[in-house]
Design brief:
This protein is α/β, with parallel strands linked by helices. Helices cover about 35% and strands about 20% of the residues. The chain is built from 11 helices and 11 strands. The strands form 2 sheets. A 7-stranded mixed β-sheet has the order 7-6-5-8-9-11-10, sandwiched between helices. Strands 1-2-3-4 form a 4-stranded antiparallel β-sheet, with no helix packed on it.
């Protein structure tokens, strides 16, 4: 961005911006003019609530904007009796040393309400550039904007049209997001493009474990639920969540856990963190069940296929498989270093 002397109204966060911003379509450099980012050829992007917006508000991720502004604090470590589940997951999946991240430029794509943004800002001294396609960036700003404003920059943008030059970031991570993008492999390539040579990229995703992966209430009902208005779907979940929780726990207690895949509720045993109280279990169950049924896209992948996507795009894969974190929690992860 051009010298901050030209800026008005953005506040100190963007006056301290150090990463060059570009028009994602034309690659022209952007600078601030009033309450917009503009280029010299007429490109213009609004800054709304201190966050540059590179996409229309109404897009395929509007459900996530609804979701993360409604459940803005549910998954934050400091709002869950310092459970540290997000911290455990972040460092287990990335395998990054927090001391090594000092002053590094990190790109986070798909921030949601900022559960991992909080981890980076609280536990490291990295500079974080955090992007989401939905208006969940507003929830992220409310949650984390005051922790280290000089190290956090937020943007609403598409994974396919990020407002940064290629080969810019020391580290890139994308957790809990890729399965919800329209083109999984294109999304992976976009992430890799933004990493420097020698930079590290880490992703996780829903895995395909076999033919039975989609033999599940989630995939049976999604053709209908993803078309429902957000408020109607969340109301339906809230009205039924209590008896579904009881039934799910009953199945698990009497060694009938395999039946849980046919219940229209998140698998409490494998998805929810351990140690939550009754109120937290209910809130997490509503959130994760909405997350099951509302997204436009849900594309699980074979771990071997994602590894091949990395290698095809010039990344040396250092790990591909399941990472365990917390108690009985695991995620399918691929991570590697960009070589070309």
């Amino acid at each position: 961005i051009r010298d901050a002397q030209e800026s008005r109204g953005l506040g100190d966060v963007y006056k301290r911006q150090i990463m060059k911003l570009i028009n994602p379509e034309t690659k022209e450099s952007l600078f601030q003019k009033g309450d917009n980012l503009v280029d010299n050829k007429g490109g213009i992007f609004p800054i709304i609530n201190k966050i540059p917006r590179f996409v229309d508000a109404d897009n395929y991720c509007s459900n996530f904007g609804f979701q993360w502004n409604k459940f803005s604090k549910t998954q934050l470590d400091d709002k869950n009796d310092n459970s540290q589940i997000s911290k455990q997951r972040f460092f287990a999946e990335t395998n990054w040393d927090k001391e090594d991240l000092s002053e590094k430029n990190i790109l986070e794509v798909g921030s949601g309400a900022g559960r991992f943004s909080e981890v980076v800002l609280v536990h490291t001294q990295a500079n974080l550039y955090s992007v989401d396609y939905s208006d969940s960036v507003s929830a992220n700003l409310k949650n984390n904007g005051s922790i280290a404003p000089e190290r956090l920059q937020l943007f609403q943008a598409s994974i396919y049209d990020l407002p940064f030059l290629d080969d810019s970031f020391d580290k890139v991570f994308c957790l809990g997001v890729l399965q919800h993008t329209p083109d999984f492999e294109k999304s992976v390539k976009s992430l890799i493009n933004k990493a420097k040579m020698g930079g590290e990229i880490v992703v996780d995703f829903y895995p395909i474990n076999g033919w039975w992966t989609k033999f599940n209430a989630k995939y049976i009902l999604r053709p209908f639920t993803k078309k429902m208005p957000n408020d109607r779907l969340i109301s339906l979940i809230e009205k039924n969540v209590d008896w579904l929780i009881r039934l799910s726990l009953f199945f698990s207690r009497y060694k009938l856990g395999f039946l849980n895949r046919f219940l229209p509720i998140v698998d409490l045993e494998s998805v929810l963190p351990k140690g939550l109280n009754v109120k937290q279990v209910r809130e997490w169950a509503i959130l994760d069940t909405f997350d099951m049924f509302s997204p436009e896209f849900d594309n699980p992948q074979k771990i071997s296929s994602v590894k091949q996507m990395f290698e095809k795009n010039g990344v040396l894969v250092e790990f591909s498989g399941y990472v365990h974190y917390g108690k009985n929690s695991k995620a399918a992860v691929v991570r590697g270093t960009k070589l070309s």
